[in-house]
Amino acid sequence: MRICHIWQNFMPIEFGGVERYILSLSDFLSKQDQNLDFFMITDKAAYVPFLRAIRTSGCQRINSLEVHRLGPNLSSFLRSSSCKLLDRQSNLLDKMLITSLFREASNIKGMDKVDVFHVHGFWQPLYPTIGLHLSQHFHRPFVVTLHGDSVSPNDRFAMPIRDPATIDVLKRADVITTYSKETLNVLREFNLGKTSQLIPNFVNTRLFKRPTSNENSSGDRIVMVSRFSKPKDPMTPIRAFAEVIKEVPEATFKIVGYGPLYEYANSLVQDLNLEGAIKMVGMTSDVRKYLWNSDISIGTRGSYITTLEAWAAGLPVIAPEFGIMKEIISNGENGLLVPPGNAHQLASAIINLIRNKDLRAMMVANGLQAVKKHDIQNVSSSIADIYASLL
Description:
Layout: E1 2-6, H1 17-32, E2 37-43, H2 50-55, E3 59-62, E4 65-70, H3 74-86, H4 91-106, E5 116-120, H5 126-138, E6 142-146, H6 164-170, E7 175-178, H7 181-189, E8 196-198, H8 205-208, E9 221-225, H9 235-247, E10 252-256, H10 262-271, E11 278-282, H11 288-292, E12 296-298, H12 304-312, E13 317-320, H13 324-328, E14 336-338, H14 343-355, H15 357-370, H16 376-390
Parallel strand pairs: 1-2, 1-5, 2-4, 5-6, 6-7, 7-8, 9-10, 9-12, 10-11, 12-13, 13-14
Antiparallel strand pairs: 3-4
Helix pairs in contact: 3-4, 4-5, 9-14, 12-15
């Protein structure tokens, strides 16, 4: 069985949550069943600037994934230029780009052997629409996984789930999966409940298990794994740490990740005179050693997979009281929830957790218990069952 994953910005060097999800799922399932073969189409134009994208390899092997990067072409160049100059998207240019990338994808060797097309994410309709066209062209089942926990019309970073273009694609999906109860309720409002399933995110707990005990730690080593983008709000934890270090001068903060706001974050660290206490790690494909050498994990908005990894690594978690974090974290039991964007309350929670060893120990134990139902062994079987049922 050949599965084709489709995700617009698959950048394994940066390794955001969706990238880790797709790669972990493919690697695990391919080991469980040698008859499963995983294909991937994504966007070469995610590599900027344009000239660098042209020179980027169009095909590579990443573990179990055979990754094919589409574009860039004249349509993608015009679309990108239009967005920058006019600060808005053109429907005509979008349609031109969808048509050109669909043609390119459909001509990839082996694309006609795909059994199921599986689209991930839905912040823009571009790649989901290409996935739909491919499934219709080759007469194959179509699965959509919604990686996102905010569907509020008042949230500018929410998935555009109510957009007519989004609904048009979702209505044609054979199966829709989401990990958010709130998202599932919206899908039901649009009469998509019959094709929608609630499936939690996952982590390979065995791979993230801490190799040595952390019982005698002083508790002052903080870590954050996050993409540096506006929706994630990585600046609030940096500002909070400026307050933490005044109360706990020996505290340290390692920040793992990369993204558009990385240089701005670096400047903020310097402006707050935190260079000696904060280490900006940058992009990495393996976050485990940073989790294992820390005592407390700070989550950003939508840091579902990062929270699961922190729990599996034996860390207590502090996260914003928003979206999926409210669904998986029981405040005061397996983590602490703080108001989004509130640096002062986040600092207070960090200081409290540093000084309260018993609270840390309780949260570690409860986190290890909570992550069991998110283990890849259990969750991946649900996804494999979807693939099998569609055939």
